[in-house]
Amino acid sequence: MQTIQANGYSIFFNENCYTYLSETLQSDVYSKIFIIVDSETANYCLPDFLANLATEVPIEIIEFDAGEVFKNIETCTQIWQALTELGADRKSIIINVGGGVVTDLGGFVACTYKRGIDFINVPTTLLAMVDASVGGKNGVDLGNLKNQIGVIQNPKAVLVDTHYLGTLPQNQMRSGLAEMLKHGLIQDYDYWRQFSDLSNLNTDDLNALIHQSVIIKNNVVTQDPTEKGLRKALNFGHTLGHAIESYCLENENKTTLLHGEAIAAGMILESFLSLKKGFLTDAEYHEIKYVITDIYPTVSFTENDINSIIDLLIHDKKNEFGKVKFVLLNEIGAVKTDQDIENGLIFKAFEDYKN
Known about the structure:
two-stranded antiparallel ribbon
């Protein structure tokens, strides 16, 4: 797969990743390498990564507990303290090896330690490969509120080695697939159509889909790196999806959802809103709903759940002047941003989602 050029950095794939690393991690450039992992990637991915890391530069491993609940400022403080105790300086480099929690949090740690040191992202989940590690967004959650604290700062490089996907359970693969579906829905109808039948998908097919998904996201963020306009399109499904994810994370009576599982529900709900606003046809909406529900189980919501989810919308980062702003589909492959939606229509979306 060809290397993709982004804003000031490159996205390398498979064998090209380690060629780049060996050329970059020279002892006269970096004083020390710090590899940040969580407890899952420490077990399943770190040994392979270290086996491919050819360098004479001293290496330190910093590990934290796996899970969205640890994507917070307290974990950052622990890692900043570890960096200090282990002698990290401004000529050190951080390599984040893991899923979206690791790349988001590790990137934020790097951007803020000593006012910023170099970092490289090595995404090991499908979700991180096609979404979290591309585009320069780094940050942590504030309580149950997703990604409320952070900065936009690009890594030195992103290294996508798809062999790490062999370590993932099916639910994690489905979680990443949601963002790939989204990329088709917002930008590329032909790409979307490739997901209508995944029964004969092989490794080469998956690699090609991942590569194209990264191209789509990179094209968007390259044109609008700080989310002033076009980049808002990437939030399709995320206004309600993030609220659902946050609600399930904080409510002990609800099953915690993976990011992609919540976004899948959000995409169906926001496609219904697009239909009712006159942007999507009935045929387009039912095609979207059929494809997504064929991959993801329907989540159950009570009336109280829905009220609580709507209350969480006020914290969405796209909001302006206290108003919730939605990204809706104008058709499959195009979007309308900054859309106002009444709460009554959101309730109707949830009602249709259940049926």
